[in-house]
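Suppose you are handed a protein chain with no further information: no name, no annotation, nothing but its sequence. What can you learn? This example shows the usual starting point.
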Amino acid sequence: MSILIRHILIELSKVFLLSLAVLTALMIIVGLVREAINQNLPPAQVIWLIPYILPDALRIMIPVTLLLATTVVYGRMSGGNEVVAIKAMGISPVRIIWPALVAAFLISLVTVWLNEVAVSWARQGAQRVVVNAVEEIVYNMLRTQRRYNSSAFAINVRRLEDRKLIYPTLTLYARGNTPSVTIMAREAELRADHAQHVLKIVLREGTVNVGGRITGYFPDTYEHEVPLSDASRADGVSGSPSATPLNLIPERIARQHRVIEQFERELAARAACQMLCGEFDTLTGPEWDKLRRQMADHRQHLSRLYTESPRRWAAGFSCLCFVWIGAPMAVWLRQRDFLTSFFVCFTPILVVYYPLLVYGIDGAKNGTIPPYSVWAGNLILFAWGCYLLRKVVRY
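A reasonable first move is to predict its three-dimensional structure. Written in structure tokens, the prediction is:
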């Protein structure tokens, strides 16, 4: 029996590693092309993205390739009547399925770790690559589209002469109490200062308009600095719950509880003061609508923090659930054609499991359903696997 178990594990490993290598390579290529198009990255910077795209590609492809390997190996065994021979010897089919389940459990732990790496280290690393290449990205966009915009500013140019922007219009967006600023110049140049983490925009001979009211003229050189993170189009993820490591989530939850409690006390004090002063109309005015929206944002941030831990564990242990249904399904179908077994398993997963996972994550992040609802899809796959395993053992 030990020889048969070693044979199963070796076959599973060969099919799994080969299919994982091929599908992950394809996914990395797709991810690189997507980032290169979205960010207009130069080729040298695209290569630097590979280590940061790899964990994201692996965490997506491992469950699928593990299901594929399981249906291939057990489909061949069942189609070749090896399972029938084993049952004729009085050996339960569970004896040949449990090695795959143990392997899937260990791979699930690895996938949980990859989920952790992908949403924290990898995304922030990809963001750094984009930020460091912001100067070339802006120049490439201006050459092809004559315009570039980010969350902080927008640039339009008439044409480019080598590294010079001819007749540029720079618009600095309003932030807080700072009004918008529009600068029109004869020429300009971009310089990324990585030591100070700023993008320097050097403009020569132009006019400045502040808030559409104040206009000035500068005959020589005017230099404006924009933080590289604001100048790039990279999504800021450092403060997001999805980028928070699992070991820091309890601390962030406790801190967010304190933020909400402090905000509630401030709201209660303000409401009491306004009621004592007879300002009842202000309690339903736009100011209180804004405060209620801020409270809703605080509560949603807390719900997202509560969701992150079960989300990553549920996504990681999809590997075990996929094998739990894949192995008995392949044995029961008795098809040498592995594609038949694979699609019979994967189609319900695609139709039921992934929609349930997405629904559970969205609902838990919004606070409408409990965070552990993200495990609903895994529980359904587990129940389905129990039903299939019972059929395999009985018939």
